[in-house]
Amino acid sequence: MSFVTSQLALRSITKRLSPMALSPVALSPVALVSLAVLVCVSALIAPQALAQNMALKGAGVLDVTSGEILQDHTVIVEDGRIQAVGPARSTEIPRGMEVIDLQGHTLLPGLIDMHVHLTSGGGYHGYERLKLTDERRAILGVVHAKQTLMAGFTTVRNVGAGSFGDVALRDAINDGDIPGPRMLVSGPPIGITGGHCSDNNLLPPEYGISGEGVADGPWAARTAVRRNIKYGADLIKTCSTGGVLSKGTKVGAPQYTVEELTALVDEAHSRGLKVASHAHGAQGIINALHAGADTIEHASFIDEEGIRLAIANNAALSMDIYVTEYILGEGAGAGILEESLEKERMTGSTQRANFRKAVEAGATIVYGTDAGVYPHGQNAKQFSRMVRFGMTPLQAIQSATVTAAEVMVSITCLEFSYTQAPPSIKSIVMSCYLASIAIGNEFTAVINAMISRPPLDQWLSGANYYWFFTGVMLCAAIAFVGVALRYSGRTYNPDSA
Questions:
Q1: Are 404 and 159 contacting, i.e. CB atoms less than 8 angstroms apart?
Q2: Which of 403, 366, 393, 407 is nearest to 62 (CA)?
Q3: What letter does residue 425 receive in the DSSP assignment?
Q4: Could you tell me the pTM of the whole model?
């Protein structure tokens, strides 16, 4: 648990805690990592965040699943990964390891922002956006990635970037070329002609400009999904309604028919990718949920039916309830059009009221800020607004850690295992699934190590090697069919005991 890595938050998808089931436990709104504490700790260790080996000693560690602060703990980081977390008195620090004394400070897992635009900047809106070349956006992305990491956000979901700039940024971070958070990226958002996020409506018709994300009709939507996957997308972003910052679109007006959205979602899900749907208006939200979208972005005008449907579909809401303050306070100076300012005046307060309703109803809400509309590195400002408008401090932290991590997991056997397990043994079931993967990998490694030795070098030479593994997979398939025929599926409500 540190800002060094969010591997624990992302890979250890422990147990889901519904917002309505959470309590502040021993945390006061101030103690809850009052952002003062968060920033303080970040400032202390961020300059050393690239160090591969360190011991963070004497800190309090926030257990984000229970809300308990574990006092006087030590965190051991080796080769850039957390290897141990335990009481300082009993956790041995390897000889020669750099020790950072954090007594009086509190650590928590690296935070996750589920809605950012790292290749966009808060100072470039409206016609100012037209000044930015792809190359300039790429350079801005490098700057913004470091700002985001140093703010304590070690994982982000980049939902929309032109020319696959987010793919390049992700790969550069993964290759160690530049510092930045772990990124899941969508590439260009997909939507309708003249729509929000997909098209460019700033230029007059004589330019004949059409956005790279435009895809009209079910098959065009499928083609666009395939294109984004081809060039490296981790998820798909689409727009089911108009938007605040797009010229000529109405915030609440639906974009895409249910048929088009269903084709897009089906194509993405068939390839193992989740779908994030920008949707402000109530009908657009419902359309996206009926189509199977995994997350609803903004959800400003969501109604009771939309909240009910989101809960029933296990879809998450990402509601950027801080950004309205930047748009209305500083947006005009950043180039935001008066048309957009007026739309935000109609949207912001309603979104905050509906955020409270969604929290009270027990909807799954993840931490998403829309950073890039406002300056990067200020992502944490939304925590206080989430508490102000209905969450407990712990709920807000969980929205940016364990809840976000769970929602980011791809549609795989892991997610199936999670949904099929009662809440009390979800961690055990997922551990068993991961253990089965490890056993399979170990089996393959052992066979490959032995084929150079007699008699296996004779038995498994040439085509026999492939026939052997074909036979193993056939046996596994037969066993699977036998189990599947007898299996009665059940999706457990996270709130049920």
A1: no
A2: 393
A3: G
A4: 0.76
